[in-house]
Amino acid sequence: MRIALYLVSIILANVITAAFAPLQFWVFIVPMGTLLIGATFIFRDLVQNKYGRKKTYLFIVIALILSALVSFLLGDTLIIVLASAISFLLAETTDTEIYTRLQLPMSWRVFYSGLVGGFLDSVVFVIIGLSPIGADFLPWEAVPAVIIGQIIVKTVIQGLGAIVLSQVHLVLEKGHKTN
């Protein structure tokens, strides 16, 4: 189930980004798929918890291939597909390694690793894919607002995920003590 959630959330993020106009709040512009990208880091951490770091890298490669294929089939340009693949690989790898090395409760590892992964994903994708360096969808003046908007959304999702995971852990811990 964890693997399915991870892979489906990545595919849905691509589909939702292609199907819906970006959200705009204040000066920030956030593609709709960003709402799921924060969750993909959480799902990846759950996969790693169950299957370990080595197998998780196999699932990251599968997710990368699926994401690139779906992005291409939805009509994204090659530079967008490439930017997405680079940012995905960098963010997922970083998230995996931070999650592995932190000696903290799971909820904090999820939050911190996802925070860094989300930051890298946002910066790399926007600069390589959307700025004048890439597909030239955004002028340089808009790049910071798009990056910051994505980071805000991904951080909120990571925070909510960490809170939910900590609460689930407390409930499970109480259940073990009463048995």
TrEMBL record:
The keyword Membrane applies. The chain crosses the membrane at residues 28-47, 59-90, 110-130, 142-165. Pfam families: Vut_1 (PF02592). The keyword Cell wall biogenesis/degradation does not apply. Keywords: Membrane, Transmembrane, Transmembrane helix. The lineage of its organism: Bacteria, Bacillati, Bacillota, Bacilli, Bacillales. This is VUT family protein. It comes from Metabacillus bambusae. InterPro entries: YhhQ (IPR003744).
